Amino acid sequence: MTATCEKVIEKDSKKGDIMSGRVIVITSGKGGVGKTTTNANIGTALAKAGKKVVMIDTDLGLRNLDLLLGLENRIVYTIVDVVEERCKLKQALVKDKKNPNLCLLAAAQTRDKTAVTEEQLKNICEELQKEFDFILVDCPAGIEQGFQNAVAGASEAIVVTTPEMSAVRDADRIIGLLEAREEIKSYKLLLNRVRPNMIKSNDMMSVDDVVEILSAQLIGIIPEDTGIITSTNKGEPIVNDEKSLAGQAYRNVAKRIIGEDVPFLNLEEDTGVVAKVKKFFAGLIGKEK
Amino acid sequence: MKDIFTDLYNKVLGFFRQTEKKEEESAKEVACNRLKFVLMQDRTNLTPELMDRMRKELVELLSKYVEMDKEALELGFEQEGNQMALMLSIPVLRAKEEAEIEAVLAEEDAKKAEAEANKQENSEEENEESSEENETENEEESENEELEIEISEEETEITEESENQPSKKKTKTSKK
């Protein structure tokens, strides 16, 4: 499969080397807020929209992006093999099962964060920019070397957070660090695992609260969705599920990245029994007029 | 008929709303407030102790110029878009007489001059004695001085701005 992937690249690279893809790092500070899920879904959605996308997993020693994409059995070479010149960059790119526009550069599972340097990652990104429209860098949790490496080659960032205190606090730290890096030209906030019912009952911070506290521009609101778990189990990103609300939300994020002006999904609409009764009575009162 | 129903509906709804309000702060409000407080500390590297010290020093400094309600002085950070603002709100009780202010300042100047004179005397004396023990003492002293200077720099930064606005004072620091 690496051979077919090479072909794709060769064919398109004939168009010229002037083409320069956008390198976007997906980061969060806190672990478990959905960085990798976001990466897999945005990547898949962008590829579905006809863009050429490569995803780089920089979480050395704790790789997971391959699992979410269902590509764990296809990995032959990793990013460390590329850096240590055991293979060419093109050989290490694993093509997606469904979409030929989508490739993965996997992390090494047996090595630690020191196996790849900032400079090396930067070079890899520059090389990939020639061939791809989008390079999505999956950043490890934390603010140590792994983060510094992942950010090195990027010019844009998506900060993933959830409406929980610890996640927002860590996102604030990450935003501070991103602002200090000159090469990062813009960063956007993606609010994951939003529970409209809890927000409505004032048990959880709302989207507006988080945006106000972090004073960052929003690129997506993803509702909490049990479908994420099943999609991970199947190794198939939820954007492929046309019925899923979270999938729809991720597709919208991809559209916004491309530059389309897509309104945010209305998650506040109540579908509970009480709301329906209320609506019914409101309708009756309205009719009497 | 319609009016009776809407009235009843509103009354019932109002009852529930009232009881909600009487309850303690919602989890969301608690989270927001705690987060804002903790982020302020994260962003400025100012612990509650340091904030308290800053507050005390500001009271001391500003009370030379205005008579204010020292207990009601509010000091905190506020977010304004991408900018963080240090907000200082002081209820002014009474404007001081010009002579009053000058007297306080003159007294302070005199104290400063005296302290400087003492320092010079001390250094002269120390210069005369050139034992090793004295040298180490000098080093310690100079370290202390450095600390004092750092703090006074912060003070001047705040007062420069605060002199422009007598009752509400604001100093902007860029977000880290």
Task: Explain the overall architecture.
The complex is a heterodimer of chains A (289) and B (176). Chain A is α/β, with parallel strands linked by helices and 289 residues long. Helix content of chain A is 44%, strand content 15%. The N and C termini of chain A lie far apart (68 Å). Chain B has one domain (45-174). Chain B has helices at residues 2-22, 27-44, 48-62, 98-128, 132-162, and strands at residues 66-68, 74-80, 83-89, 92-95, 168-174. In chain B, the strands form two sheets. Chain B has a three-stranded antiparallel beta sheet. Chain B has a two-stranded antiparallel ribbon with strand order 1-4. The model of chain B is unreliable at 132-176 (pLDDT under 50). Chains A and B meet through helix 8, helix 10 and helix 13 of A and helix 1 and helix 2 of B.
Q: Characterize the main sheet of chain A.
A: 8 strands, mixed
Number of helical elements of chain B = 5
3D shape of chain B: elongated
Poorly predicted runs of chain A = 6-17
The total strand number of chain B stands at 5
Q: Supply the CATH architecture of chain A.
A: 3-Layer(aba) Sandwich
For the secondary structure, the number of strands of chain A is 8
Overall number of structural domains of chain A: 1
Strand content of chain B: 15-25%
